Every structure is written in C-alpha cells, then in structure tokens.
Amino acid sequence: MIGARSIAEPTIKDTIIHRMDPRAKILILISTVFVAVTLDNPETMLLLFLIILSGFALARMPAIKLKTLAILLTLLIWGTIYSQALFYSQLPRTVIFTIVSPDVPVLGWLTNGGLFVYEEGLHHGAIQGLRSASILSLGLLMCWTTDSRDMLNGLVGLKVPYSAAFMVVTAVRFLPIIITEVLTVVTVQRLRGFNPKRFGSGIVKTSLNILTPTLSNCVRRTGTLAVSIQSRAFRANPERTYLKKLKFSELDKALVAVCIFAAISIVLIKLLYNMYTSGIYYSADLRPVYALARGYL
Description:
Oligomer: single chain
Keywords: Membrane, Transmembrane, Transmembrane helix
Pfam families: CbiQ (PF02361)
Helix content: over 70%
Protein name: Transmembrane component of general energizing module of ECF transporters
Membrane topology: Multi-pass membrane protein
InterPro entries: ABC/ECF_trnsptr_transmembrane
Distance between the termini: 52 Å
C-alpha cells in the first residue's frame, strides 16, 4: 500500500507548474509584467493577483515558502499603501484624519504643513501594492518551481547572451543563500545572549553584527564563484551544448499564446484610451474599446 501510494501521488516537483518549459515561464512573466503595469482597475488587478496565487496551489508549494510569500506580500502591500496614504501629492485629496497638525510648533514646520492620511492615497496605494504583489508573486513562483540550470537554458533559448543569463541566474541563486546566512548569524547571536528584537543600542549592535559576517561571506562566495567559472573556461566556447533539451508542450504553447495576446491587447486598448482622454485621437468606431478600458482596465 505504501509503494502504491507513493507511485500514485505526484512528488513536490511533479506538478503542472514544475513541468512547464522554462522559456514559457519567462514569456508568461514578461507578459504579466506588461499587463500589471498597464492595468489601473482595482477589481481587475485583484483578479490578476488571485489567478497568480492559484499557481502556488497548483505547484503544491511547501508551507515554509508560503509563509515567506505571505510575509513579503504583507510588507510590500502595507508599505506601499502606508507611504501613498501619507505622501499622496495629486489633487483632489480628501483628508481622513490628521497625524501632525500644521499648527504644531516644530513638527508642523518639519513636515512642511502637517502630516495627513488621504483617502485617494489609500486607493492609489492599494492599486500600486496589488501591481507590485502580482509581479513579485509570479517571479517567486517561477524561481521556486524552476531549477537554476533550466532557467539558464531557458534564457539562452530566448536568445539572451550567455553571460547576461548566467548573471541573472547567479543573482537569483544568491538570494536564498543570503537569507540563510542572515538566519544563521541571528541564531548564533541568540546563542551568545543577544536579543535581535530589543530596541535601543541592542538592535543597532545586532544589526552591525549581522551585516559584517553576511557581507564577508558574500564576498568569500563571490571570489570562490569567480575562480570556479574561470577554471571551467567560462568564455572559451561560445557554442555550448546542454544535456537537457527544451521542448514546448501543447499546454505551454497555449498559455504563452494566451498571455502574449492578452498583454498586447490590453496595452493597445489602454494606449487608445489614453490617446482619447488626452485629446490626441478619437474615433466613434472605438467607443466599445473606450468603454472597456474605462470600466475594466
């Protein structure tokens, strides 16, 4: 029963998302970036964000990565909404409540006329937060479900120069290593009696103790990597061969076609709508296009 169950159930890397061609994932990510940057409607942005989050369920992400994603999205969305609510500069602006009144002797002058929370800033920050969260979520999904060698092959398969592709993959690979280094340093500090959550001079000392070994380890790893790639003749043979041959499946082709078509269509519709609102170009035959852009995009 145990053997039959292990065969019947897919492993953590045997899902639809994991089996996708890395070139398809890269093209879908690029298309989604264009869509996310172009959209302004909050309902449509929320729908795009939920569709991207559904990919994590299909990929059967482990709990630790879902927790990491939740923390990053919370910090990103909260920080964007908070900053836009306080420093929204466009007009009109509706004040919800006052944090620092302009009549306060010192703080009123330092904040250049007071500090307020604006309703339009909250709305604008929510849209910007969803836009950034969608791009971040899809980027993490692609990195977490794609092996570094496959990602390198995918970039090279899309005619990206090998040196540039290698630098991109190396940067992505270094991120989890840096996070692991920081967690290790924090654990060592706790064993030595430091409290990273303590305010005052303790948190400053802890931050410096984290920064120094983390940077030194990064420099050491960078030097080791440089020696390693030079010893393997990094630039000797421009025509490289790869063990794994990439091949688009029918699902990959369909998803890439849908994403590219949606991205091009949305960008063109928004371009025509912006030309209409700016008074550059207007056509009565494009009224349905204007209505679609105004109501849903």
